Amino acid sequence: MSRFLSKTARGLEPYVPGEQLFGEGIVKLNTNEFPYPPPESVVAAAKNAAKSLQLYSSTDAKALREKIAETLPSGLTYENISVSNGSDEVLSFIFRAFFENGVVFPDITYGFYPVFASYYGISYREIPLDASLRILPADYCGINENIVLANPNAQTGTALALSDIEDICASNPNNIVVIDEAYADFRRDGASAVSLIGKFPNLIVVRTFSKSMGLAGARLGCAVSSVELIADIERVRFSFNPYNVNAMTQAAGLAALSELPFYREKCREIIATRAWFSEKLRENGFLLTDSQANFVFCEHKSVSGEVLQASLREKGFLVRRFSAPERIKNRLRITIGTPGDMQKLLGAILEIIGTKAV
Questions:
Q1: pLDDT tens, position by position, 9-55
Q2: Most buried one in 24, 190, 282, 336, CB count within 10 A?
Q3: What are the structural domains, with CATH classification, of the chain?
């Protein structure tokens, strides 16, 4: 780092994304991307928007927000929605807008939460997951603190029931509760806390187009909440960058929302592939959480996570491993790809554990 870097910036521990490696023979299953290309209509919409790149994008993105509102429970309008350059950005806005007095989240969850807290000088407290790597709702009820929960959880894939979210919101009426639903479309029950927005004025639900809508490269996310809280988020957004969602992304998002049957069918395929792959792993000595996301979180009884990850990389498969905290260092987070990808991966895993197990 340079001698000009501020003391505050020197103390930051940046978020570390999954390895971005592309090329022939690489099967990328480490960043929870959608394994299918977008429909042609989505690509065409982005290309068409590119013809007017000399112009600024819409600052209010009203057409996109209205289209999102059409997919939400009745009673919610575009005024209940703020769109962003990926869900990371709107999470950043939320931290800046509401968490001056601190925030609480699990100790094993999306790694950007502590990064945002440190970036804004916000105090935070981490609540450990239980021995089964699950969030215990009772740990968050009546604590009178701001709360952020990924649901399904970002590393483990486990999910809270909507009744649990209701209890947490109701018992902390004077604090903000953020439910980060990046993976909600892969839940077996299809439940979303968006259905609770009208009931709890302290609830914010964050969604992304990166996972179930296959637009990770376009960068599009949103927050859904009361009109008042969305106005607060918009105040922060306009103080940072009112042109935060570019024209091509807005166009791609609009087109993607017109292709919901395609995306929903692909999500069902991913859920089915997850179930098949999980069962095969269990049959071959793996321990897994009950993931309801587009990944599995697993460890083998005899082969370390470090050895498995390195051996798979040698065979052209990228998977994710987190070395901290200690109790998950042997766990691998493996994105669910196409059935063909997962069949090939399973073959590689069986070959590795056949030679490495002791």
A1: 999 988 888 887 776 779 999 999 999 999 999 999 999 999 999 99
A2: 336
A3: 7-37+261-356 (3.90.1150.10), 40-259 (3.40.640.10)
